[in-house]
Amino acid sequence: MMLKETDFIYPDWPAPANVKALQTTRAGGLSRAPYDSLNLGTHVADVAHIVAANRLRLSPFLPAEPVWLNQVHGVHVIDASNANGLPEADAAYSKKSGIVCTVMTADCLPVLLCDEAGTVVAAAHAGWRGLCQGVLGATVIAMHTPPEKLMAWLGPAIGAHVFEVGNEVRSAFIAQDEQAAQAFTAAPNNKWLMNIYQLARQRLKVAGIAHVYGGNFCTYTDKSRFFSYRRDGLTGRMASMIWLNSK
After folding, report:
1. How many helices, marked H, and strands, marked E, lie in the chain?
2. CATH number corresponding to 5-159+216-244
3. d(Cα 76, Cα 69) in Å, to the nearest integer?
4. Per-residue DSSP letter, 167
5. Phi first, then psi: what are they for 126, rounded to 5°?
6. Residue 117, C-beta contacts closer than 8 angstroms, at least 6 positions apart
7. Is there a contact between 219 and 227 (Cβ–Cβ < 8 Å)?
8. pTM of the predicted model as reported, rounded to 2 decimal places
9. For 78-127, what is each residue's pLDDT tens digit?
């Protein structure tokens, strides 16, 4: 079966008409277990030519080949319109039409951003390390747009009721912002349950963004739709993509 529009998730946000975005799920691809079926990651030991075929299946839905990143859980942001090869970065933005900013995840939080005028878009990969270190703030700065003119969509990530972390993670966030304590709930064995969506909203608010949408997914528990590294270990990757169409 071919990839269908119903295999994607489309952000529910009031973006301008020329801002296009889509979120892949695990449906509609060719990979076999444990990567079944639309694995888009080339770095997870899936069969290379099958991943290439999966990526090719996206072509009818996109204006160009996505700008893929070598994600390293950091805060580096690139201009996707000038990207060459596989740039090492965890976020990308573009002010040019037809440039597909892309991040891949399987529990980490993907964040898509655009401005209300439809002149700039961005995609950020916010695992806990990058989120704590400031990848969202760095992305907002790189977009060179007043943050009050921006909006954000929070894509599929691991849910707050299952994301167990150690005290060092909680301490790292609180060291950056005392309000972060509100996003952690005590769990057994001196662990904490972390709400990555709440932390992202806090960081976006600090960056000046008031309009935030999405954030109602759980990759860990929704096995039929999403890959989850925390759940399965060896698994595929989903893509969150955003671009500008010509006005």
Report:
1. 6, 12
2. 3.60.140.10
3. 11
4. H
5. -120, 80
6. 16, 149
7. yes
8. 0.97
9. 999 999 999 999 999 999 999 999 999 999 999 999 999 999 999 999 99
In sequence order, what are the residues at sequence separation of 6 or more whose Cβ sits closer than 8 angstroms to the Cβ of residue 175? none
Query: Which 3 state secondary structure label does DSSP give 101?
Result: strand
**Ramachandran region, residue 10 (left: φ > 0; alpha: ψ -120 to 50; beta: rest):** beta
Q: Cβ–Cβ contacts within 10 Å for residue 6, how many?
A: 9
The answer to whether 245 and 22 have CB atoms below 8 angstroms apart is no
Cα separations (Å) of 64 from 53, 81, 100? Answer: 15, 12, 7
Where exactly are the structural domains of the chain?
A: 5-159+216-244
Dist CA 240 CA 22 (whole Å) = 6
* Whole-angstrom distance, CA of residue 67 vs CA of residue 135: 18
Q: What is the predicted pLDDT for the residue at 46?
A: 98
Q: Give yes or no for a contact between 73 and 223, defined as CB atoms under 8 angstroms apart.
A: no
